[in-house]
From TrEMBL:
It holds the Pfam family Rieske_2. It comes from Streptomyces tunisiensis. Signal peptide: none annotated. Residues 22-117 form the Rieske domain. InterPro entries: NirD (IPR017881), Rieske-like_NirD (IPR012748), Rieske_2Fe-2S (IPR017941), Rieske_2Fe-2S_sf (IPR036922). CDD domains: Rieske_NirD. This is Nitrite reductase small subunit NirD. It comes from the Bacteria.
Amino acid sequence: MTLALETTTGLTVRIRLADDWFEVCGLDRLIPGRGVAALLPDGRQAAVFTDRAGRLYALDNRDPFTGAAVLSRGLTGTHRGRPFVASPLLKQRFDLETGRCLDDDAVRVTTYEVEAA
């Protein structure tokens, strides 16, 4: 989803969990390239990002290599046209759209459908 900056006031970022939507924060709280951690109802955490084009991404905040909930603090970038977040600990990169680790094909994190409404 891509949104124009002037239309973001009052919008809420939501993540789809099973058959329902969970409100994370106001869209105006997201800064392009920086993540926000959200505590989910079941105790897990999600990392939510927006990019400069206004696209939203959400994935599991837990780094599968260390077990630490730190992906929301990772650096974002692109590799071969794919948006990613790099873990701040061991620097593995995770595709923001698919959750696939770009450095180890056998590893992935959960991604979530995300929207601003």
